[in-house]
Each structure stands twice: as C-alpha cells, then as structure tokens.
Design brief:
Strand content: 5-15%
Number of strands: 8
Number of helices: 15
Radius of gyration: 27 Å
Structural class: alpha/beta
Distance between the termini: 36 Å
Helix content: 40-55%
Largest sheet: 4 strands, mixed
Shape: elongated
Oligomer: single chain
Order of helices and strands: HHEHEHEEHHHHHHHEEHEEHHH
C-alpha cells in the first residue's frame, strides 16, 4: 500500500478526536455523511463531494451502487493514490447531458479522470496530462460494452484500469477531508481548521517531494540522450577539419565556424547546469543551430547553394537540417509529410526504413516519438519553433498526444514552453483546463479520438 494511503488512514482517528473535541467545546452539531448520503443534487453537489473523496452516489441512485460497494470503490482509488473520480447519477434535469462532464470538471477544479454512470449510460473524460484522450475513449468503450447492465462491475472494471494508467496523485483535499467530508458546521470548528492545515501542509510537502523525484529521474534519462547528441556534434566538428586560417577561408566561413563552436560549448555548459527536464530544451536548440551553421559552412567551402533554414531531420535530429519532405507513416498510423535529411529521404523513397532515433524506455528501446511526454523538452529544442506542425507530424503517438492539445499552450507560439508547468493529476487548476478534453461528439460510439460529451445520441 502506498505510503500516502497509510498517512491518510493513520490521520483519520486523529481528525476524529479533533472533531469530537470541537463539538464538545463549541457545542457544534457535526454530520459526517458518506458520499452516497449527501443531501441535495446537481453538479455543484457532486463537485463538492469530489473535493472530499473519489466517489459520489446520488441518493436517488443508491440502488445502483450501495454504500458498501461505493466505500470499497473509494478505498481502491485512495489506496492507489490516483486522481480518479466516479459518480453514479440518475437521468435527471439536475444533470444536463450536453455539458455534464465539462461542468463537473469546471466546478471540481482538479485535474484527473472523471467517470460518470448516468442511469444506465456511461462516459468518462480526463485531462490530457493525466490520461491521453485515446486511452480514455478506448477504456470507456470497453467497459460500456462489457458491463453495461452491472453498475458495480462496470465501475470496478474502469477503476482497475484507470488507476494503473492515470498519471499524478490523489488530491490533497481528500487527505484533509478524511475521504468522506464533514458537514458545513464541522468546517467552522477551530480544531478542524487546524487539522486541515496540518494535513494540507503534509500533502503539499509530499506532492512537491514526489514531483522533484520524478523530475530527477526524467532529467537523468534525458541526460543520456542529450550527452549522445553533444558527443555526436563534437565528432562532426572534428571531422570538419576546418582552420580559420586555411587558404580560401572567408569571414563568412569563420563566422559560421565560430557560431558552431559557440553552440557546442553552450550546449555542454547548459546541460551541465540543467536542474529540471525543461532545461534540456535550450540545449537541443543550441545543437540544432550549431548543425545548421555547419551545413552552411560546408556549402560555402564546396561552392554549393546555401541551405535553407529548415527543421532538423524528423527521424533523427543528429542528422542535421532536413533537405526535403517525404511521405511517411509510423506503424499503425497514416501517411504524413515529414522533413528528412538526404539519406533518410532516399531510404523512404526506396521503401526502406529510415535511420530512426531510438531511446531507452521501461518497455525497451523505442523511437523517440513513442517514448512519452518526458521527451517533450528534448524534442522542443529541435522542433519547438514549429510546434503546431510537429504536433501534426506526431499525431497518434505518445508525444503527439501532448503536442496536439494546443489550447493548453495557447499563451505562446512554442508548444513546449508551458508544457512542464501544466498542473499534474490531482493538482487544483480551477476552471483552467482544455475544454476539448471534456467535449466532442462520438455519435453513440467511443471513437479513437477520445471525443464525446453528453449530447443527443452520445450515450451508448
């Protein structure tokens, strides 16, 4: 069982004593309802319950998921320490289908995975940084078809898979609320406020520590890849065999060479000083600029036309600037035009596999575009100047799913600049989230695009 779960459970008896003391001293009447016993209805009530615990059952839907089953489901989510929210609701005007998922996410204000059983219908949505739209859609469709007639089985099947795939941590507010939540009178008690502050302080410390540990692991993985890039660029400089004083050298050649040397030194210094994964972006940006300077220098020395400023080779940025676009498709994907170096362009045109950049992952060596969002800073330095284009090139890949959420990065033309600062799963973000994650029609089917709201015909 995760340490965070032990911490929450160990804290509950203490909170209970604080509540009892507050009631005794202040004469307050405190109710401690379970999620399924909450009074009132509507999305606001559900959202308030979600801030206190992972499962809410509308009183009118208790026959679908009895309290004992709801408590077990909540314990499963809490033990996994994941931001997964589940609601069981009746079909009612209190829950407008067309906007229900978006409204729940807005009012709850926490990044996570949201699953709703509405009468006999089911749907789920998630913030893209917690679970990709495709994963949510595929999982939703699977449980809808397999367990449509059994609410408890359906929700347990969904949660079993969601807690394994969701990124992030349980909201700190769950620990403060003790998993169920206190009545409004209890929240006025001084003892409860003190206990909540203490719980919140510990949860914040745990979250910051966990994030820093994850960043250290990601940075070390990126360091291996970037060090290989820097070494490869240094070897290119050695093979160049250029001397600024050689016969025929011009001021333009010397400027290109000096720029390439500066980029090499800058990349080494910045990588040595990198403290977070996003610091890698400036390193690979320097390498891309340095390689373009080398390509320009080579053209000047040979009398060839000067190269155009283009994106690096899509298949491996170490190949240098691309020279053309080729029609290519990744395994399981569709055709798309991608920038390629001369050698890879020939390989693709002859039906051969390009020389793809492979990186290490827990699942073994993978192309960088299938290695997940941890490689976004690395790719951002090479391709960040054309983020929207690269997002299209990588459509259907793990890295592409991060880049395709353009609204999450709308404050900048560079899709990578704000990616590392997105709220993690379980973080409070209020109504600041990508609306596309919680909307879009799917016409009665869970499509691969992950779309689907509660509009007419959307419920299977």
């Amino acid at each position: 069982m995760p340490a965070s779960s032990w911490a929450r459970r160990a804290a509950r008896p203490v909170r209970g004593l604080v509540v009892l003391a507050a009631v005794t001293v202040l004469g307050l009447s405190v109710s401690v309802p379970g999620a399924s016993a909450a009074t009132g209805t509507g999305t606001g009530v559900v959202a308030e319950a979600f801030r206190k615990g992972p499962v809410y059952v509308d009183p009118r839907a208790q026959d679908q998921l009895p309290k004992a089953a709801a408590d077990k489901l909540a314990a499963k989510i809490e033990d996994a320490d994941k931001p997964v929210f589940v609601a069981v609701l009746p079909e009612s005007a209190d829950y407008p289908q067309a906007s229900l998922m978006r409204d729940l996410r807005s009012l709850t204000g926490i990044t996570g995975v949201y699953a709703v059983r509405l009468g006999t219908l089911f749907n789920a949505k998630a913030d893209h940084q917690v679970m990709s739209p495709g994963a949510v859609a595929n999982l939703s469709g699977a449980v809808q078809r397999a367990d449509a007639s059994n609410t408890e089985a359906q929700l347990n099947t969904f949660v079993d898979q969601a807690v394994q795939q969701a990124r992030g941590h349980a909201p700190a507010s769950w620990a403060q609320a003790g998993g169920g939540g206190f009545g409004s009178g209890g929240l006025l008690a001084g003892g409860l406020i003190a206990a909540g502050a203490a719980g919140g302080g510990y949860a914040l410390y745990r979250r910051v520590k966990k994030r820093r540990q994850a960043e250290r692991v990601e940075l070390e993985a990126l360091r291996v890849v970037v060090d290989e890039d820097i070494t490869a660029f240094g070897e290119e400089l050695d093979r160049l065999d250029f001397s600024p004083s050689e016969p025929g050298a011009t001021d333009e050649m010397r400027a290109d060479y000096g720029f390439a040397l500066d980029a090499y030194e800058r990349a080494k210094e910045q990588m040595a000083a990198a403290a977070r994964p996003q610091d890698v972006r400036s390193v690979t940006a320097a390498l891309a600029d340095g390689r373009f300077a080398l390509a320009t220098l080579t053209a000047r020395r040979t009398g060839a036309p000067l190269p155009q400023k283009r994106l690096p080779c899509f298949f491996d940025p170490r190949h240098g600037p691309s020279v053309s676009d080729v029609n290519w498709f990744p395994p399981g994907g569709g055709f798309r035009m991608v920038p390629a170096c001369a050698e890879d362009a020939v390989r693709v045109s002859q039906g051969q596999q390009p020389m793809t950049r492979m990186v290490h992952t827990d699942a073994g060596a993978q192309p960088y575009w299938n290695a997940g969002p941890a490689y976004a800073p690395w790719a951002g330095g090479y391709f960040g100047g054309a983020g929207a284009v690269v997002g299209g090139l990588l459509a259907g890949t793990l890295l592409g799913s991060l880049l395709s959420a353009s609204s999450a990065y709308a404050d900048s033309g560079d899709v990578f600049s704000s990616a590392p600062d997105l709220p993690e799963g379980g973080d409070f973000s209020g109504a600041d989230f990508s609306a596309s994650d919680f909307s879009g029609g799917f016409g009665g089917d869970f499509g691969s695009d992950g779309g689907g709201d509660f509009g007419g015909g959307d419920w299977g």
